[in-house]
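tl;dr need the bound structure. longer version: we got a ligand (flavin-adenine dinucleotide) that a collaborator sent over and nobodys looked at where it sits. i said id run it. heres the input, straight from their email, havent touched it
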Amino acid sequence: MEQFDYVVLGASHAGLEALRAIRAHDADGSIAVLDREGRLPVSPTVLPYVVSGKRPEDRIALRERGWFDDLQVAYRQQAHAAALDTAYSRLRLADGREIGYGKLLLATGAAPAIPPIEGLSDVRFHVLRTLDDALALREVASAAGRSAGRAVVLGAGLVGMHAAENLARAGARVTIVEMRDQVLPGYFDATAAARIEGAFRDNGVEVLTGRRVARVAPRAAGCTVLLEGGEACDADVLLVAAGVRPEVSYLAGSGVAVERGVVVDEFMRTAAANVWAAGDVVQTRSFFGDATPAGGILPDAVEQGRTAGMSMAGDPALQPYPGGVSLNTYGFFGRRALSVGRDAPREAGPGWETRVRGGEGSDAYLKIVLCEGRLQGVFGVDVLFDPGIMWELILRRVDVGARADALLEDPQDTARALMSGLWR
Ligand SMILES: Cc1cc2nc3c(=O)[nH]c(=O)nc-3n(C[C@H](O)[C@H](O)[C@H](O)COP(=O)(O)OP(=O)(O)OC[C@H]3O[C@@H](n4cnc5c(N)ncnc54)[C@H](O)[C@@H]3O)c2cc1C
């Protein structure tokens, strides 16, 4: 049995950042990173561009092999974890091999959630999480594009929207079905979402919000998606993008607590000794301490990976993970939407303040949300600002109340000036 001081399971955003953080503090410890895939790591965020053909699959690696060599990390591909034995500190792989660890990071991400829709298992449908998924979708998408075939996308989250745009760009006639009453729920406020939706419609994409799928039925080529209320959409290509579930199948009986994801503390430690977890596999708490959706995004995976790596290596510079603050940069049809933080609650109390620039009819839109002077959220379409700086202002609970007008008028320079005052 091979044995390492540190084992990182999953070579994507969370795992790779953890490797860097471990090696930054521990120059000598033996480290292995294991991944079930048989190729260099790939970010799921690049997959829609693989589908459209914009990014060739041989030029999308997150890291080259030399990166692992430079860090003196043993990089094992086709190492699919099947079970975790925390009593004996070892992982069992699907091919029967065993790997022992001193400290272990679980960074296995998430897998597409398949909703319990009647008839779905009887038809061919696609998901988008791995390179194989993208290549399979690219093949059917280009056939659909050539023949102006019909594609139906179930779900208007980031995955569904990115994929829908790229299917439309490939020439398919696309319909998006979303059960919530706006696209990108949880990422953008209703006004920003309406503008994004408008851009999709302008580019020929049909967007059906507030609609639930009743069932799916096979058709000669493809299937028919039947909606509650009687509407029906024929699909040559069906993509299910209805959210994700944490990739935890190998944790059964391990003693690692799992609820909506692996349960971790503020240093990303799990309930099992010497086992940490980070990224989409964990159940993230919100920075705001409320039910604001958190996690499932790349910046969070990186932040958690860094925290876990520092914690594993005993780095004295370690800070507790503050909780997730949503941060999204979303490009669509050549335009850009940005969102950071949270919107005001429906029943906002007296301390809350919302300021908006760019109403109906204007292209650019910006909304800032404050609570007792502290920045809570910024949402914009076609307005330039650095989301990373806004993110810092939120995390540091900076009182921006006196600069709220300036922030609305010129978010980029005002936020920079506020931050530079803090750094001095
Ligand atoms: C199409 C798409 C578009 C997206 N767009 C955005 C975006 O615009 N902005 C954004 O912030 N986020 C986006 N996301 C989400 C973002 O990709 C994830 O938040 C991020 O990849 C999470 O990183 P992770 O390291 O936790 O997990 P993952 O990236 O899921 O990586 C998990 C790794 O673990 C490996 N693994 C899994 N199980 C096992 C096992 N049993 N044994 C060994 N290895 C295993 C997998 O092979 C994989 O390499 C998008 C996701 C998708 C699918």
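gonna send this back to them w/ a short note. The radius of gyration is 23 Å.
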